[in-house]
Specification:
Pfam families: HTH_1 (PF00126), LysR_substrate (PF03466). The chain is an alpha/beta fold. The chain has helices spanning about 10-20, 25-30, 35-50, 65-90, 105-110, 120, 205-210, 225-235, 250-255, 285-300, and strands at about 55, 60-65, 95-105, 125-130, 145-150, 160-170, 195, 220-225, 240-245, 260, 265-275. Helix 1 (about 10-20) crosses helix 3 (about 35-50) and helix 2 (about 25-30) packs across helix 3.
Length: about 300
Amino acid sequence: MRSTRPLPPLLSLRAFEAAARHLSFSRAAQELFVTQSAVSHQIQKLEADLGIALFERQTRAIELTDKGRAYYAKVHAAFELLRLGTSEIRAFSTERKALSVGLLSSFASRWLASRLHTFPLAHPDIELQLQPDIALANVPGGEVDVAIRYGRGGWPGVASQKLMSERLSPVCAPSLIAGKKRPRKPQDLLRFPMLISYSTHSFEWEAWSRHAGLDLGEAQRVQLHDYNIVVEAALAGQGIAMGRHRLIAQQLAQGSLVQALPGAALDDPRIGWWLVTRKGKLDGAASAFRSWIMQTAQQDPLV
């Protein structure tokens, strides 16, 4: 007899399937364009709904429990059927144009994802394919059709158009600087670990320190793979991050992150987010995306 009890939420099942397939919450988060904490939260909801533990949490790894392994086999098979059916249906849609977009996963999950639903409504004939990577995608070589890059512009061999400026300031969890530990001047920041994300051309802390008159020679640097990890580490009280206000607006508004030195933000009009395309005339899909992303960016003023 078929059960009438409702299925668990699809978001929780997707998070579980991706985390079980990768055996990693962080890699699942990158695949789904969400934060690691969001994946963990969805899996905790699923475990509560099912009344069983699906994973064994270890210090630096996760493993499926026996029941989790059995459940994954069925959930994975169901998602594979969905993927196969979706691919077959899409194969009939020969008029849809695929457009690949290279970008940072932090920008995809923390800014673009919440706004992306308006693009297919305006352009149902274009299928966006987001390709997150910390390396610069080769736009002229055709690795992606367009890219969204962070920096100061001036990349060789491509056309770049600024989408929006970025505001930078050191941020951290309130508990890190509570009471007598609160920094009073830029030099006080050197008492805390400096959280830095990997970048081909790192410039954020250097640009801000020049603005603030701070010598970083004795700074304790903690190099992390991705800006999403930097934010999670800052939220956990592990150190001070260079806050990109566009990406952490929600955390600043909620107070889970605060400016370590209020009033010390850097607003450099050269620093921001850029749309990068091939030189010359764009095709219809790339031109449509450029118009949409430019308009969307203009609707997000810095406050």
